[in-house]
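Fold this sequence, please.
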Amino acid sequence: MSFLSRYVVPQFPAYNGPYTVASFDLEIPVTSLPTSQKPPNSAEAISTVQFRVFYPTAHKFEPADTERASSAPPSDAESEGVSSDAEKTGWTSGWFRHRATLDDRQKEQSKPVYWLPEPHQREYLSGYARFLGAGSGLAELISYIPRILHHIALPAISLAPLMPSNPGFKFPTMIFSHGLGGTRLAYSHLCGSLASYGMVVIVPEHRDGSAPVTFMKPGVTETELVGSKPENGEPGIGSTSAASKNGNGNSRVQVDYTAYPHQISEETANGRNRQLEIRLWELSVIYSAITLLDLGQIPPSTAMFDADSSTRDSLLSTFKEKLDIRTPGSLIWSGHSFGSATMIQLIKSVYYSDKTQPNEDPLFVPDSTVPHDAPDAIPLGKQITASSPLLLLDVWCLPLLSKRTQSLWKLPLPQIGAGNGDRVLVIMSDEFFKWRENLRGVRRILSTDPGRRRDGEEHKVFEQFSSEPVVKEGEFHPNNDLPAPGVERGTQIVTPMTAASPSPPPAPVNPDDARKNNVRLFYVKESAHLSQSDFGVLFPRAIRKAVEPEVILDLNVRAACEWLRTCGFEKTLAGYTDIQAVEQKLEKMQLGERRDGDIFEGEVMRWESVPLED
């Protein structure tokens, strides 16, 4: 890349955590995962699952700068209150088994991790253009013009081993689900930032038609689907590779974005239900995959981008027995927008599976024996508990408003129903906070009785599950309840139709409910819906109503880290380092300076608490 390009190519800021971040892509054939659950009819065309992994490493990020994250461990002062070396797992110098050899490792060079997913960068750029409203011809032209965007790189290392740790140490592990228009890299800075504090973050790329475009290697039977047209409400699948015609074995199957109206309608419900069916099944398959990786088993035909089998096997071996997923309720679940709705539906579908009746046509019925033939792994049905940590960003309620989701909609999140509301953290953007209609739905989701009838016409949109719907078909969007955000609407981002009005007044709080439900619900002032994705920091001028995008993301990461340390990860997850001046970062880390907890005590600018309702 030329000298001039360094000043033109959008740049990511460095991760704020104390550890260097590494990353890789995996794609695993579904047929290589006999431990996983059988697919629903809507997912029969999906031959593989694909996800990106972000994690801490002992290697040093290149190009090396003093501004970059250090691979040195926090000082013993950060383990205040831990009495013995054995209890300081991961926090004393004992974290590193090979500390003496780090200097040699840090000299190694690494291929950049590019933001546009490889090897289909041009196609992803074209997909984003179509998602934003460009026609197919224009989108294809756009994909050839701004080649400089192909050089956007993450401040992370490709294919580096997981950070060495003491025997018995487990890294906090999270699965993150993207929203509409998202990919496995669209939230790289958020997920990479969490990894820089010592977490392993797994980000699937959903093949449900919610990504701008995605690709998968065809299976044995999928070749029949090449060039097929989707049925109404199903993601489009077809071949886009000339390789599939010349027989060189490099064929691929493309899944394009599928648009649905933002309306309470049968068309929308059918479309979003199919997408949720696929998403829930994919998450269950990926859970099976990571349980095998933690057991030290590599599924056959597992593909790691830009790595041969020897590199793949060596790298994945560093994850054996290192993921904190063998204790019920230890896996962290998270998502943004549609991804948040996905996680809500997954948690309820698994936890309340015994309360779901077949005649309700549930979107997902978990197999209690998955993963099969893996006695040391915990089935998904036991992993998801009333204590499972759940991080929800800009919850989008519309996908949960259908007849097939109604029975679970009426039930509380299991954490809240069991009095463990502190295991749920919800962070909203200013845009979504001011979208009153959606905010009412979020408050219902976070209540102990979401199905209870509320007084007022404004609540009827959430109570249209009876045989005679209480509302007619209509938009779940700005015209219903102003002001509203620029949310994903079909193939484009829709901007607010009116000027912002004052924030909605707090909903009445039932004292008994407030005592039982200690969910943390916050929003960041002057932030946009896309501020929690990479678009906010890469293209700040394009994201209206967002001020200081790096600060917005940092507040999200800071809250997540501090919250997770209260969820039982205080000995394995680094505390937030509140340092504004980058050049002082390493020095202050060595002094062990921390300000844990104050973000939840009303002491941080632009960080506001939102009252819950009964």
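The chain has one domain: 5-77+103-115+152-496. The longest strand covers residues 20-29.
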